[in-house]
Write a structure and sequence with these properties.
single chain, about 425 residues, alpha/beta, Monooxygenase, 14 strands
Length: about 425
Amino acid sequence: MSLSQKSCIIPDDEISRKLPKEILLRILSYLDVTSLCRCGQVSRYWNILALDGSNWQKIDLFDFQRDIEGPVIENISQRCGGFLKYLRLRGCQSVGSHSIRTLANHCHNIEHLDLSECKKISDVAIQQLSKNCAKLTAINLESCSQISDSSLKALSDGCPNLSEINVSWCNLITENGVEALARGCNKIKKFSSKGCKQVNDRAVITLAIYCPGIEVLNLHSCDSITDASISKIAEKCCNLKQLCVSKCTELTDQSLTALAMNNQYLNTLEVAGCAQFTDSGFIALAKNCKYLERMDLEECSLITDATLQNLALGCPSLEKLTLSHCELITDEGIRQLAGGGCAAESLSVLELDNCPLITDATLEHLISCHNLQRIELYDCQLISRNAIRRLRNHLPNIKVHAYFAPVTPPPTINGPRPRYCRCCEIL
């Protein structure tokens, strides 16, 4: 080390005199994991301060290093102890149940725990958490494939303050686990079971009865649920704000009507792939749900321009609207949408992929939507490049995502069909 380098190093006692320990700890408390580790390399004194448990109340290792090994979590648990309140281990696939047991034994004040995509986590770990971490309010177990009903029953017994839980793609979860959870954790406000095929009407009805404070509910691809359970949710959960029932193909307009009657504060509705919904259901929603901001109606193939007309009149806060594969939508529907209050003030994203009846006239109508930031036009064969250029001239900041796939040629009378390149031209 050169003389100039030595002169740059401040002795520990001088640092201590210039800044009291309490001030340094307060400053370090604002730093993330990476910055704390770097500060710990400044000097022995800073190392002690940087590793002080009070600075590690909130830890997000997803952005720091995804290949975290179990011993690292165990060391953090022992160092932080009762200070740790928030821990995000999303995607740390080397972390197993032993590490989470150590966490549970040392960090009794943990409130928010994200274990999504930690595929080695099993029921044993969650059972240990439920015994030692009664203050837990939010847990994310998405894609933890070993988690079963036993975990939900354990959480029900030991974590009565739980308000958020995500068990999406946990295929072992059934209505029995959800029922046990709902009975013991009646403060739940956010519940997600996306892709859980065994979550059925019984499970959802139990949630509605025991957890009436639910505000966010994601049942994407829980394809056995029917109008009975959604109607019960609508009736009991009057503060419902966000609902996703995409790919729940058994649902009909009865569900939409129930939501319209009971959930006036609904702001997000995702119903992609619910092919039985018609204009009637969406018209009812538009008349009563004035706060709708985001709607995904992809593949709601029965809706027509009447839905857009009523959304334009009744939903002035609409920001994002997905109409992809709604093949009955025409330029007239877009004209009415563009003329409504939402279009001029709020609408920022409009998705129209595979809407075969819309033409260049649609883009002319959208020129008045000054806040439009993105539009999707994949495989809209009647939209031209010139129309897109004109739209961009009026809305220079808009992002247009489109391609023009070649039209499938008719079969020839003699010989095989000629081969066409299916490559897309991105605009």
